[in-house]
Amino acid sequence: MSEKIDSETDTAGDITIEPERGARKQSIIPGVDIVKGLWSRQSKATRLVIRSVAIAAGIALLVYLPFLNILPFAQVRTDLSPEGSSWSAVLFQVVVYMIVAVGLNIVIGLAGLLDLGYIGFYAIGAYSVALFGSPSSPVTEKIANTFNLSTGWAVPFTACIPIAIAFALMFGVLLGAPTLRLRGDYLAIVTLGFGEIIRIVLRNLDITGGSAGIVEIPAPPGPEITNEYGSRVGLFNRLDHEYWYWLALVVLFLLILFARRLEYSRVGRAWLAIREDEDAAGLMGVDALKFKLWAFAIGAALGAMAGALFASHQTAITPNDFQLNLSFLFVAMVVIGGSGNMVGALLGAFMITYLPERFRDLQEWRPFAFGLALVLVMIFRPQGMVPSRRRAAEFADRKHEAEEAATDV
Amino acid sequence: MIGALDSLVLVPMVNWDNLFSDIPGHTVDGLTRGAIYALVALGYTLVYGVMRLINFAHSEVFMVGTWAVLGIYTAIGAAEGDPLWFVIIATLLALIGAMLASAGTALVVERVAYKPLRKKNAPPLIFLITAIGCSLVLLEIFGQVLKVFFGEPFGRKPISIPSLVKTRQLIGPNGALIQTDVVTITNMQVIVFFGAVVMMFALDFFVNRSRLGRGVRAVAQDPETAALMGVNQDRIFMLVFILGGAMAGVAALLYTMQFDGTKFDVGFIIGVKAFTAAVLGGIGNLRGALLGGLLLGVVEVYASTLFDSSWADVTAFILLVLVLMVRPTGILGESLGKARA
After folding, report:
1. What average pLDDT does this structure show over B89-109?
2. Cross-chain Cβ contact B125/A185 below 8 Å
3. Contacts of A339 in chain B (CB under 8 A)
4. Is it the case that residue A22 has pLDDT exceeding 50?
5. pLDDT confidence band for B238 (50 / 70 / 90)
6. Counting Cβ atoms within 10 Å, is residue A131 exposed (0-12), middle (13-18) or buried (19+)?
7. In this structure, is residue A20 part of a structural domain?
8. Structural domain boundaries, residue A388
9. In chain B, how many domains are there?
10. Contact B130 A378 (CB under 8 A)
11. How far apart are alpha carbons B339 and B214 in whole angstroms?
12. pLDDT > 70 fraction of chain A, expressed in percent and rounded
């Protein structure tokens, strides 16, 4: 029953943006129209086959990426120069930031809430794993002492993940409940404050290890392997980063599926309605506060998962790993790519993580180039590089309104 | 078990004696600190009141002002221990220079970044992101670009600025203007506090009494009607950025006088605090910015003596959240348009 309602509303949504689609039928890139024409002439079955082959090939390429060593494609590797960082480690970091982008895309892109403190949730995820998983953290030591457990006791990694998610959800609701009632502009400053508070609190308290942070963060469980030096180590160790990369890739795929389903569900449509016009959505019976809180909490949970992966791969974290400017980086990933569109957010995350690593020699210029890119993209393409169709239509509509108003005067 | 719980307590040590031993002294410190927040907050509040836009690049407008002060001191060769007449001239020149530099920067940001967006009627989120981008570009111009072309003192290291006024004992012994058993107020504190307050009243007078100020209030109240009445909206936007920038320039001079130095990212913390102050007092409300700034300064100083200076920032934000929960529009309410009185 609910499925049926879904599809009906979806078509209704399509009809309303039809004129915009007609207006931009011609693509500026040559060849796109020809490909589109060819594609539309194929039968449904052929399309399905082509699509699944393409997806399978894409996944195979992603899995193969750490070993990519065929010229000229190997130029993408980051370890070509001696001071470059490990290629698989960079790939892992890219995927972790992609998870962040998927989570933040729900908050900013879908629900339209500007969260400048997303780093706070990332830190909560990282510290949950660190504090409960590390045998030398003050929290586990305290618990072990209180309940007379053996020394070296710690919560296993797999149990730390639900703890991280639970903490993130809790903080998401704690922060969201009072602040989401406020107007959007205030949300930015309050979340900014939250991100900073988390870092200061982590630094100031003894229970979180203070400014020294936490070491001995556990790795995910895995079979033992023999590494290139002949010693027996866990699958997820400090040297073989490709296992981490594959793990993160699997998590990313699952989360993308989850976010996709969410986007096209009742909840997702409620978010879009709130983003486009909160008052109108309220009149239609959408409980704006409830759904905004959901967006906030789900986004927080995804951020925490990314943080947990990050901490586990690092094995040691300090509060300084969670500086506030990382928050701006996260927001930029979503917005440069095209907010509201998962592909755009993923692309943004890739560019912002990968490009600086590839061009390490220019590291000093990185923030400048980044700021300039941000301003230029916003001025010339405010909808982002790969916007969602609906979002692009919204922007075109707003621009059209502005032009109409200008001719009136 | 009790012992374990005891050490798990999250609240840091509260040191009441520290606070109550010198309430007047801490209050004076807080007011001085808050005066600078308030001046910077005016820039946020003006722009927000007229355009409904948080100009995140305003913190960098302030930063440019501090560099202008350094530039002028270097240009005229001011150093510590100069005669009083020279100090006064140097300070006045630095004041003008910082106001011009900051106002100019604010104007450039508005023309280059915000105007094209306004033409496209972009949603507020896009303005915010652009502002963050502008902020980064300005930061890096001083932290990186200028360093490549001119070398030191540009770059990421902090740089000291000669403290002309502090070494001059204008009145009173040991640079203290008033020294009683209860409280000591230094010349510096008096200059910073009254400098800020005078500028604020001048701005308030301008907005509420002058012809241009009436235009500012008109656009803030209702942009369309104001346009119909012959107010040039674009010019008012420029004016607002210039006024806010000039106030940030004054704040920059007072800041360098007090802290004797600057850094490429000096604006960030001040900017965040000033914005907090603006929201606290009611954004868009000029007097709210003054109240919010002073309150924030005092609370911060109290908090850092009560707990530890590392907790000051946390208290500031918690205060903000608490105030917003009770009064979502800030203490005095948000109204530049309605600010008749």
Report:
1. 94
2. no
3. 125
4. no
5. very high
6. buried
7. no
8. 91-396
9. 1
10. yes
11. 11
12. 88
